[in-house]
Structures are given as structure tokens and as C-alpha cells.
Amino acid sequence: MSADAIVLGAGIVGVSTAIHLARRGRSVVLVDRRGAGEETSFGNAGLIQREGIVPYGFPQEVGMLVRYGLNNRIDAHYHPTAMPKLVPFLSRYWWHSNKVRHQAIANAYAPLIENSVSEHADLIKAAGAERLIRKDGWMEAFRTKAAMDKEVAEAERLAGVAAINFTALTADDLARVEPHLTGKFVGALKWNDPWSVTDPHGLTMAYLAYFESLGGRFVRGDATTLKPAAGGKGWQVKTVDGTVEGKDVVLALGPWSEDVTRTLGYSFIVGVKRGYHMHYAPAGNAVLNNWTMDKERGYFLAPMDKGIRLTTGAEFADRDAPKSPVQVERAEKVARTIFPLGERLDPEPWMGARPCTPDMMPIIGKAPRHDGLWFAFGHAHHGLTLGPVTGRLIAEAVTGETPFLDMSAWRPERFKP
């Protein structure tokens, strides 16, 4: 089997890339070891975060670092045995999170985020996936005035520099918006620009169906078998339907990208933040109207098609270590005090792995030492948000168009791999 392009990885980034290549007249084979959208793209909070132009930094305050060190929080958890292996990533992550460097990174990151909703809107319409989308933003609820004042001040700054829209809600406002939300919340911040997805896996599948309607093909295969094709022109990879050859190949393998890049001689420092979710039925006639974060506790409640999805923060561990969903247990205990959650709807907590670079920006662009090899991974918390914009950029570069954004800030060479 042959194609113009092979895309390895059928998460939201890979499927979006495959769509944009197919739209440009390329024959495309999309390859994944599992079904589309069944890994990291399956379990996110379902937000297209137009407001998220400042990526999540590593805490700089000594007091906060000490509190995280106690390892009893919801928003972060770590495996002590994994720490030696994670030190190179974490130390650079901390360095890049310095206030001045973090702001410079946010400036470089912003163009991707600024185009996130519009690029999704294009694919949502083409895929007929409007039923999965809500366009009413999301909320952060605050337990203390100090925390709310700090976040509102940041929102005001973002509104001034990046046209981010928000609404500050009083405690009474919050009670009207979410009558079944209890707890001693002093108010909330409503981010108005983001869109939310009621079934993230369903959205990926809708995009996949659209890709196939363009003539694209999805097959199961092993990305680690990637190697130059015979004669050194193009690439080949083994699939259940035989070997697939293509002139160009895009690595959109998320946290598994290094399994391939390493064999090709590249050395990226990419860490993993694992995350968990669990679905719940609402108790009685309770209704959760908004995607809501309990800001100072660090978990999320999202009213999705499959139930109310509770998502946790980051777990720092070996990518392939067994599940340790202690954050779900911690979060559920707190969540039940603020909203009437009913029974669990999943047999066990879901776990996924977010691929993170130390400078908090994805790796998007041509491989420095190989023709026809392209990288599209490292999106951390914003894989869903940035899938379509990344796919368009890669497809434009592969086909020789001038990318609609300057890609230099996200190029692989910044790591000197």
C-alpha cells in the first residue's frame, strides 16, 4: 500500500493533520495501534481553551513547592520512584517557568491558542459535529476572595492584551447560575470565549469520519516499525494490512512520540503528566449547567453526554506505570461536598498521559535531519484545543504552502535534538 503521506497517531492532532493533508489533495493513511481517539484524546475535560494563552507553569513559590512536596493534593501527585528519571524534565520546566521566561513563552504560544476556536469551527461544521459543541465558556469557582481577586486581575490583563472575554460572578450570581452547587464559594470567573465538547471521543470520531469521506484511510499499525523506505526515498511502516509507504510521515504520537524519535537519533526532553477521570450520575434532580473548576482544590466537573466527568490534575510518574488514581479518590471526596454526585458510572477510573515539553510549547515542524519527516506532538494540557490548528500548520508546511502562522517558535531545533 502506498500514499503521499502517512500520519502516525490517531488522536485529535493526528486526525486533524490527516484531514488537512487530504483536503490538499494528498492521499493519506492514518495509522494507530488502537482505535482513533482512544488514548490521551479520550479523557480530557472537553474544553477548547481560547482563553488559555498562558501555559501551565511550574510553581515558583517556596511555600507552594513545600505543599506539593507533601504529595497529598488533588491538582498534583507524584511517584517518588519516578523522580530521578523526571529530574531533567522537571528542572528545565521549573527554569522556563520563571516569570520573565514564562511571559515570553506565553507571547510565543498565543497565536496557536488565538486560532483554536476558529480552526475547530471549520472542522466541526465540515464533520457535522455541532451537536457535540457548546459555546458558553466555563467557570472557575473560588473559595477565598484573595484567590478570586488574583485570577480576576489576571483576566483583566488578558482582556487588555489578547481580547479575552470574561465575567466576574458574585456568590449570588453563582447561586443563580448553578443552583445545585453548594459550598462556601465567594464567587466565580466565567471565561466566555472557550467552547466545550460534550463527548471528546465522539468529536475525534466525527473528524475521523470526515477524513474518510475525503478518501483517507485509517488502519491499525505499529509506529515503532517506521523506517526509511527502500532506496531511501520516503518512509514505510507495518500495519495489519501490510506495509504502507509514503513520501512524507507525520509523528503525532503524543507521549509515545519518543519511542520513534529516539530510534531515529533524536533526543527530546519530553515529560508526561498523567491524568484521570471518572463519570458520575447526578443525584436526584440535580443539574450541573457549566463546566466548573473548583479552583483552589484543583479538579474539574464537566456535564458531558456520559455523565458528570470529574477530571484530576497532573500525576508525575513513569508513562507506563500502573494506574494509581488516588487523585480521583481525593477529588471525589471534596466534589461530593459541593455537588450532589450519585453513583460512579465507570467500572474504574480512566487514565491518560499528556506529553509535555519543558518550555510548555508543542513541537511542530520538519525534523532537522530527515527529509519527509514531520513532528506534531508535545501539546500538554491543550491537545484537544490545538489539534486542528496544528494539523493545518503541518499540512501547509508539508505541501509547500506558506503556513498561516510563523512556526519558528515551535520548531524542533529549539531543543537541539
Automatic annotation (TrEMBL):
Molecular function terms, GO-annotated: oxidoreductase activity
The entry's keywords: Oxidoreductase
Cited Pfam families: DAO
Annotated GO CC locations: cytoplasm
Domain FAD dependent oxidoreductase: 4-396
InterPro entries cross-referenced by the UniProt entry: FAD-dep_OxRdtase, FAD/NAD-bd_sf
Full protein name: D-amino-acid dehydrogenase
Source organism of the structure: Ciceribacter lividus
